[in-house]
Amino acid sequence: MSFKNLGLPNTLVAALAEQQYKKAYPIQAKAIPAILKGKNVLGIAKTGSGKTASFVLPILTNLQGYGLNRNRHPSALVVVPTRELALQVSEVFKQFSKALFDPVKTMAVYGGVSINPQMMGMNGVKVLVATPGRLLDLVDSNAVHLSAVETLVLDEADKMLNLGFKEEMNRIIGLLPKKRQNLLFSATLSPDLDSLSTILMKDPVVIKIEAEKTTDISQIQQSSYLIPEEKKGPLLRYLIKTKAITQVLVFTSSGYKADNVANKLRKNGIKASAIHGKKSQSARNNALNQFKAGTLPVLVATDLLSRGIDINELPYVINYELPRSPKDYIHRIGRTGRAEASGMAISFVSPESLPHFKVILKKSKLYVDLIDSATLDLKGY
Ligand code: AMP
Q: Does residue 312 line the site of ligand 1, with CB under 6 A?
């Protein structure tokens, strides 16, 4: 469906066309008109379905002509489970806000970095995107007040519950005005989520997107190499060079290994960074931003990155080490070929991990070619 008939201002429709958003994805076609009318929405959809724009665009529209709000009293609050998602969602707000006559100040707040700049930056913020713990720290230090929030978004609510944020979420909800719009997004429906949505909203507009793009892996080409553990480094460099790969996300199973792989690539003259849970937040942000911007060709990551993070039209994903479960395999390779672009996922399989790889493929009902790396000339790589 075209964006023209959804009730968005012309400036936003023009900005969408400029960003190559040619038609509205199903979740957008359904959620945008409902949110513009002030309705509550329960969206069952994964990252990759276009859910972020489905709430960002109508929230920005509803905030037009709103005038100044009381300082440190945001009008819209988006609660997300991870720092990366906070940054990603606030970027989408900023990207579309630029097109408006009345730009909407948005800020992302999350833990793992100093709280002071976030406290100082809160002036004039209309849309606050936050992880639960840091949001409560900011409330407790009077840096932000939630009594003027008119729209609440809980994004990836199932993940927030899984990560044990239930108490924090309940406390946050208790701080909000009773009369408000609630938008709840989740990849899955669970009894816990059901009870959350019952507390939050009566008669929501329920939007269920069945065929999520992340799990539709039909457009992803998959291959694998049988390779002894000690030859994986040369094989990685061989593939990067012979396939002229300019952007690849490489998965390892530990932070230690991720550092190791990135170091070896750098020693061989290939620009690479590693990101994992033990890296500082600013190092993670820097590496991710450079990778997204295309200035860093290789990002080596642990499964920290396999969920939720959207990297536009990533051409290659390499499993340097196999994921633990079939579910993780699908999540990892789902980083490529997203939003209707094709992609390539390559797995390195050591002889010891071959049985595990076969189990992954069988459970995912996949057939993937296994190339014996002994047929390749890896000398000099
Ligand atoms: P999300 O599910 O919000 O993480 O979005 C997934 C990806 O799809 C992002 O890279 C968006 O920029 C892109 N996207 C969202 N909506 C559209 C659209 N209507 N047309 C083209 N790309 C879109």
A: yes
